[in-house]
């Protein structure tokens, strides 16, 4: 009897073990829950907020949602709305024309009157799309040669830059004043050249604490540099130079340090781009043997221009931009703010709004409403996402991504986004842990103080395409890089989730 009881006990233990071995594994966490845990693990601070929207294409079916209707700082994700509107309203083949004109008369080799560079809303004017992309002044030099080839040796007047195509302030009141000299805060006007920035070369010697040499490249008399940049200590990694400028001054102030025996080009955003472009052109004319008796000015500052209703001019030179389709990767891939701001003003013109920050925002809001893409809490103070008031929801971003993926320019749109290791993602998703998604991801990055954002398209390992939007805001300032890395980790969580595979 004892032997039988012992045998039954052993059998029950074996059956229990077998049943336990066949128990199903714990269900994996849904994506939203996994993201919440990832946020906790990142330790970004108690006030950190995350929004997530993940939808399937082309249906728009929601697969994951985490506070996707809460308005947050979109940073450069606002460019997705701006350029979606630009493609719809302007069209991918739209071009922008800049003209060199005169209001004067010719007598022998003298031009009695002004030379005027008339801006036509072209953000690409300059070297970027030329056959000399490293020569900032090549285009202006070519124009100077064309003027001389017309037999002109003297300009008895001024050289004027005309950016009057756009109205309102050139700098948004919602941009950080400490950033006015940085390339991403370039002033917005109807005429632009070289992204409205000028290079300054800083060269450090070998003695720590000594002043760093600097020069404008190319040299120009338009602006001055007040620099206290010093040679940093041995072992300093990378440049710590900061450029500053008052809103009403062309003077660039350099602060910070540079590693010993190193050099660094910094891009300084120019005060009054119309006047700056005119000044550069005047310098090229003089180098080509054309005397200018006047000076270089912003045409809009002249009282006679302000009061004149029309001015008869003769076009001397015409320059056409690349098509909008060729500029789209500069906005979506490189995240160039000035291009986005100028494109939104062009949208405003077509839609009958003022070509200004306010008018552009009104046009964008109306376009979103017309296409059922407006969402509660949306607010645009500009077209680039640099403004402190800008707000979007993660769901609105994915709605825009779904909308554009169904449109006639879907292929162009997707190919203009950044991909791992390229454009604004040049240092993102490059590690071995991301190898499996590097050829399945295309997106738009975003960053402003207190917000890292990322949105785009992800194709699953089974070939299904998804649109996603992630916003991380209000993290502790010193943990900004960790917040950015969290975005990349969330994309990996999405890709490896059972909900996609």
Architecture blueprint of SSEs:
Elements: H1 2-21, H2 31-42, E1 49-56, E2 62-66, H3 78-89, E3 97-102, E4 105-107, E5 110-112, E6 115-118, H4 138-149, E7 154-156, E8 159-162, E9 197-203, E10 213-217, E11 225-227, E12 230-231, E13 242-244, E14 252-255, E15 257-258, E16 263-269, H5 273-287, E17 291-292, E18 296-298, H6 303-307, E19 314-320, H7 324-332, H8 337-350, H9 357-370, H10 394-406, H11 410-415, E20 441-448, E21 451-459, E22 465-473, H12 480-496
Parallel strand pairs: 5-7, 6-8, 7-17, 8-18, 11-14, 12-15
Antiparallel strand pairs: 1-2, 1-22, 3-6, 3-19, 4-5, 9-10, 9-16, 13-14, 20-21, 21-22
Helix pairs in contact: 2-12, 3-7, 3-8, 3-10, 4-5, 8-9
Describe what you observe in this structure:
With 501 residues, this protein is α/β, with parallel strands linked by helices. The protein folds into 3 domains: 31-93 and 325-496, DD-peptidase/beta-lactamase superfamily (Beta-lactamase), CATH 3.40.710; 97-169 and 272-321, D-tyrosyl-trna(Tyr) Deacylase, Chain: A (3-Layer(bba) Sandwich), CATH 3.50.80; 190-269, no CATH class. The chain contains 12 helices and 22 strands. The strands form 6 sheets. A 5-stranded antiparallel beta sheet has the order 2-1-22-21-20, with helices on both faces. Strands 18-8-6-3-19 form a 5-stranded mixed beta sheet. Helix 8 (337-350) packs across helix 9 (357-370).
